[in-house]
Fold:
Amino acid sequence: MISVGVVGLGYWGPNLVRNFHTSARTELAWLCDHDPERLEAIGRQHPGVRRSTNLEELLGDARLDAVAIATPVASHHRLAKAALLARKHVLVEKPLTASVAEEAELVALAETVERVLLVDHIFLYTPSVGKMAELVSTGEVGDLLFFDSVRINLGVFQHDVSVLWDLAPHDLSIIDYLIGREPESVMAVGASRTVDGLEDVVYLHLDYGNGLLASLHLNWLSPVKVRHFLAGGSYRSILYNDLDASERLKVYDRGVDVSTDPAGLRDVLISYRMGDVIAPRLDATEPLFRLVEHFVDCIERQTAPISGGEQGLRIVRVLAAAQKSLSRGSERVRL
Structure:
């Protein structure tokens, strides 16, 4: 089994602990957190697992194969770098780092030491996004025309990153997974209504070239929770609603057909197509468990993760460009 230590036992860390403990392919070997009380509370649930408030003690264990990091973003670079230098495989919560330079350094280091670097872009491991990718790759959607996402909720406020850096990686990683490239340019509008000055409402617009546009609405102030991701195609469109447990994915055979008028009365004819709506059957396996299994697969087979460092770097490049746009009064920024 792959021996794993989890660093950071706040909001997301306990979920990683639970899934590494559940998997028959991993051994939960270490728990690490700077807060002794939190370490004790989680440790009581796993009495056979070693604990430490010191990362160096964990990394000094020669039997430890991998480290999962679920700490504030500002600490990701330092912790992941230390783990890679100790020749451990590394899983890091999104975003991987807070800067392009730090991200690029980790990607290069992981390649040098020949260790897996996986970013926890959790939505790529949902059956819904897997089905979306299948529909896009097989041509059933046709040419992609637009992405439209709404990811809003009242809180949870982060103290080290804005709503852009906290929520946008989810949708940006899905788009990147579906089309495999960065946008040509980005433009962001945002505002802060909290005392720390970090944006809590952001509208992000991306141009991927060839007429493909994306719009992301991110909001920590909304009184309602919405998780809609719409991918529009020339044949079909896909709606991913993460809050609809019974029908998370719907495929719409609805749209417009555009044809040339043979009589020359008009240059273009547009007809509306109102077809069926299909909700595909999806696997019920927890996405985080699928991520853990994929992490193990990549370690054992020495293969690149679907959410590896290279993808993480592309996402951080987009986030940095969007942040630049915000700082320049919503100026469009080219990548």
Remarks:
- The chain has a mean pLDDT of 93.
